[in-house]
Amino acid sequence: MRLFAAVDLDETARAAAAGSTHALATRLATADAPAPVRWVPPEQLHVTLRFLGEVSAWQAESVRRALGVPWKTGAFSAGLADLDCFPFSGAPRVIWLGMDEGREQMAALKDELDDRLVSIGFESETRPFRAHLTLGRVNRPVAVSGPELRAILSEHRPETARWVVDRVTLYESRVSSRGAAHHVVESTMLAPS
Questions:
Q1: Which pLDDT tens digit goes with each residue over 59-104?
Q2: Where are the beta strands (DSSP E) in 9-75?
């Protein structure tokens, strides 16, 4: 099974992010050269802490147990911020919504998760962590350049949304011809703030 650990949004933050998705989809549809983007359905919006990929049933159980141990990281407030795309130069692949409030706490939560995963045999993740919410993936071939897409993104002012991060959720991602569907495996509460 394909697993990832994530932080979910509350309904207010989800609605704000979905509003940005709708506004961007509308704007890109009217651009001279619209970018073909696969937008993430609102119910699947989340902040990925760690993608684990394909794991065996016994590894999945080990991960579930590791996440069930009480967390040292306490619940914290988070907020959505500006839009951008990955990579930072060249052809864009991912449109995302960043965070302002809660970035340091999200990084601490990610570090604690990584420590737990290393203790059960997973490799330490080497790439830098940037807390973000993926709104859409740009399909190939790209019909709009990175600078053009960034200009469109800079024109949009996302709705401010704050929420309380109070749990980590382990998801199974099931991929089909219609895209990925995410199913909760386990959701564990953070320490009270």
A1: 999 999 999 999 999 999 999 988 988 888 778 889 999 999 999 9
A2: 37-39, 46-54
Sketch out the chain's domains with CATH numbers.
2-189 (3.90.1140.10)
Q: Could you give phi then psi for residue 111, rounded to 5 degrees?
A: -60, -45
Distance CA 183, CA 166 (A): 19
Q: In whole angstroms, what is the distance from residue 85 CA to residue 176 CA?
A: 25
- Bridge partners of residue 54, in order along the sequence: 2
Enter the pTM of the model: 0.90
178 burial level (CB within 10 Å; 0-12, 13-18, 19+): exposed
- Contact predicate 1/55, CB 8 Å: yes
Report H helices in 53-180.
57-68, 103-119, 146-155
Name the phi and psi angles at 57, rounded to 5.
-60, -40
pLDDT 10s digits, 104-154: 999 999 999 999 999 999 999 988 999 999 999 987 666 667 788 888 888
- Could you tell me which of 39, 49, 53, 2 has the C-alpha nearest to residue 173? 2
What are the residues facing 187 on neighbouring strands? 169
